[in-house]
Amino acid sequence: MRLTGWGCFDQRVSTVMNTPGVDGLDEVVRVLRQWQHDGAPMQLHPGDLGWYWRFGAETTAGALRTWGRDGEILALGLLDGPGLLRLAIAPDAGHDEELARRMVADVTQPERGVLPQGSVCIEARYDGVFRDLLLVDGWKLDEPWTPLRRDLAEPVEDCGVRIEAIGPEQAHVRADVQRAAFDGSTFTDERWHAMATGSPYAEARCLVAYDGHGVAVAGTTVWSAGPGRPGLLEPMGVHREHRGHGYGTAITVAAAAALGDMGSSSAIVCAESANAGAVATYRSAGFEQLPDVRDLRRRSG
């Protein structure tokens, strides 16, 4: 995919920013999959794009920005809401100063079409020149998040409850559990079907847990990035009327097992550190708690 976009700082600089069209989405997903590997900072994952795809391919394409040169994508971002940019960068590009300076210019100048004026947040969880430049520019560390990881080299134990993989005919079940688990959720079976049309969902599964009476009590979606790469849980939730019975732990174990079946090297997730219950649930499902990470925020005014 040849990149086009904003002009360069001068004739020696070739990095450009681009908003891909719908026809460029599969290439973006392919590149993002290649960037996932164990031991890397937990950054934007193909599953994050897959979950966003519930709003449709056109909306997903419009929310993406890529940076690259000579036809090669080096960094990409997802505008996950009006004031949040979630970033990923190629494994060998974190110390590319020209790339970082171009990205900083694009994200800090509203006329370039990335972030608006005022208070905004950037999820850039990798070390490198880009974070350093933003901190020098006055951006501050935001609230902490807790990454967690479970190695999948060994088989995953049975989760102890009935789990079903959800297909198109049961999309409403997955959507109902999602809305019952998250206040304000707008997930519907129509949005499930939109999500399922995206290329990330070709390597994904929706899972629902049931209690002993056949009631759907928890749900999650797991996203593989390909064999030998980390897979993502996004999102996981327990029905508000069925909490406190271990269903969150059970479906998280089932999610890890599903990713293992798909060939993932590990299962990863990131939770708000302030949400002690979520962190405890993932730990009880065999996930290792990693050091907290912080996004960057620019305050208004």
Automatic annotation (TrEMBL):
MF terms in GO: acyltransferase activity, transferring groups other than amino-acyl groups
Domain N-acetyltransferase: 161-301
InterPro entries: Acyl_CoA_acyltransferase, GNAT_dom
Bilayer-crossing regions: none
Cited SUPFAM superfamilies: Acyl-CoA N-acyltransferases (Nat)
Protein name per Swiss-Prot or TrEMBL: N-acetyltransferase domain-containing protein
Domain of life: Bacteria
